[in-house]
Design a protein that fits this description.
The complex is a heterodimer of chains A (250) and B (179).
Chain A: E1 4-7, E2 10-13, H1 20-26, E3 50-53, E4 56-59, E5 70-72, H2 76-92, H3 107-114, E6 138-140, H4 150-158, E7 164-167, E8 174-177, E9 204-206, H5 219-222, H6 225-232
Parallel strand pairs in A: 1-5
Antiparallel strand pairs in A: 1-2, 3-4, 3-5, 6-9, 7-8
Chain B: E1 5-11, H1 17-23, H2 28-35, E2 36-38, E3 52-58, E4 61-63, H3 64-76, E5 77-83, H4 85-89, H5 101-111, E6 129-134, E7 144-146, H6 153-164
Parallel strand pairs in B: 1-2, 1-3, 3-5, 5-7
Antiparallel strand pairs in B: 4-6
Classes of the chains: A alpha+beta (250), B alpha/beta (179).
Chain lengths: 250, 179
């Protein structure tokens, strides 16, 4: 019999090496998350998955599961903080959903819906972030980047190409393309790359397929992300966190 | 309900799409009219806002007149609701926000072929554009927000009926949309 910790009062079993997030999702408990992806090492940067463990706030995607932990997640105090994080992301970039081809399939948007975020509030920054349309098949719209580094991780760890990186500090931090010209057309990125599949928002887009999915049939139209994420979550993982059923596993 | 609530509506830098969506509640308008009466609104053509319980504003703030109208609404309405993407984050008109206003006007009225009439409009009747388009909450206090471009008739109906019934308005999955 495996050991358990308590999540919002319910016992959650875990395997050695699992994080609180992995164990929770595997057991059918949703914890809101944005930069966490079941196929990649946790990044711990978006803080959406913040929970209280024995009274202290920690990122559940990086917190190792231990027997006897008391974890609180679905409480108004944390959801209010999560709402504020989503609002700050919306106010920091240029997130105009009506004209975005990722709308309906966007994780940031779906989180906003699920958390009942009605407005970004704050003062919108309206940054000036020119597009990179240099590549014949791929468009980069930096206006929507939330700096989750999923493309950086995918391109480095899976594709072995290191096409993307983050540069700068604080509010000046931004996504860059690893080529001498700084243009995507001068990299060896391919449509089949993992980096093409992981952007949670509408930054990395395949050209000429925008808006091809009718409203009503998009990923988060039918069911909220809290239901969708549990379907996507790996149910069985080995000690190293690898999952045989995961999408993209050879 | 003993007394009908007075409701005012207007469109600032919007397209009237949110008003169209309000009309899209169809026969529920009759139910609504048993609960509210309209003050200043495109529906009544009343030009200035009297004391109201609820003000509903679509569109962002892009020129000096928008600021005056928005402040009139804030002064007159107990509850102010921003409706639609433009009122909430600037929306389509805010796509000019990372550009210089002077260059925009020059491009449209002086250098763009086919649209050129030789000068930038300067009639004193025209309200002066602001250098940036602002969401409503950056100018006055906004009490509630109904997102969507436009919000669906069902979303508007749910929100208004919640509010009129004295509940905290919630949209929930399927009604909350940013697009």
């Amino acid at each position: 019999m495996s050991e358990t910790f308590q999540l919002d009062g319910a016992p959650v079993p875990f395997e050695p090496g699992q994080t609180v997030m992995q164990a929770a999702l595997a057991a059918g408990h949703y914890i809101p998350h944005l930069c966490y992806h079941p196929e990649f090492k946790p990044h711990g940067s978006c803080k959406l998955c913040t929970v209280k463990v024995n009274g202290r706030t920690v990122a559940s995607c990086t917190m190792p599961a231990e027997a006897g932990l008391t974890v609180e997640s679905e409480i108004e105090e944390l959801n209010a903080l999560r709402r504020t994080l989503v609002q700050m992301l919306f106010a920091e970039g240029n997130h105009f959903c009506p004209s975005c081809e990722k709308s309906g399939n966007c994780v940031l948007q779906a989180l906003g819906y699920d958390l009942e975020v009605h407005t970004a509030g704050f003062r919108h920054l309206y940054p000036d972030r020119p597009l990179d349309a240099s590549h014949p098949d791929i468009l980069l719209d930096f206006n929507r980047c939330i700096l989750c580094e999923l493309c950086v991780r995918a391109s480095g760890e899976v594709d072995g190409k290191n096409v993307f990186a983050l540069s700068g500090r604080g509010i000046a931090k931004h996504l860059i393309v690893n080529s001498e010209s700084g243009l995507l057309s001068d990299t060896n990125i391919a449509l089949t790359d993992k980096a093409m599949q992981v952007c949670p928002v509408g930054v990395i887009l395949k050209k000429r397929v925008g808006f091809n999915m009718p409203i009503g049939e998009r990923r988060y139209d039918e069911r909220p992300i809290s239901a969708q994420a549990l379907d996507d979550a790996p149910r069985q993982t080995d000690a190293s966190g690898n999952c045989e059923a995961c999408e993209g596993t050879p | 309900m003993s007394k009908k609530l007075r409701v005012a509506t207007t469109s600032l830098a919007g397209c009237f799409g949110c008003h169209m969506s309000l009309l899209d509640i169809d026969e529920r308008l009759f139910t609504l009219l048993e609960l509210v009466e309209f003050d200043r609104s495109p529906i009544t053509d009343i030009k200035h806002c009297g004391p109201c319980d609820i003000g509903i504003i679509e569109g962002g703030v892009c020129n000096a007149e928008n600021v005056h109208v928005l402040r009139e609404f804030r002064r007159s309405c107990k509850i102010l609701i921003a409706i639609g993407a433009c009122a909430i984050n600037g929306g389509l008109p805010a796509q000019r926000n990372h550009l210089d206003l002077g260059s925009c006007l020059t491009e449209v009225y002086l250098t763009e072929p086919g649209l050129s009439h030789g000068h930038i409009p300067n009639d004193p009747e025209l309200p002066l554009p602001l250098d940036k388009v602002h969401p409503l909450h950056e100018v006055v206090k906004i009490d509630y927000f109904i997102p969507g471009c436009p919000p669906s008739a069902d979303a508007i109906w749910k929100f208004l009926t919640d509010l009129i019934a004295g509940n905290t308005p919630e949209l929930g999955h399927g009604l909350i949309k940013y697009d």
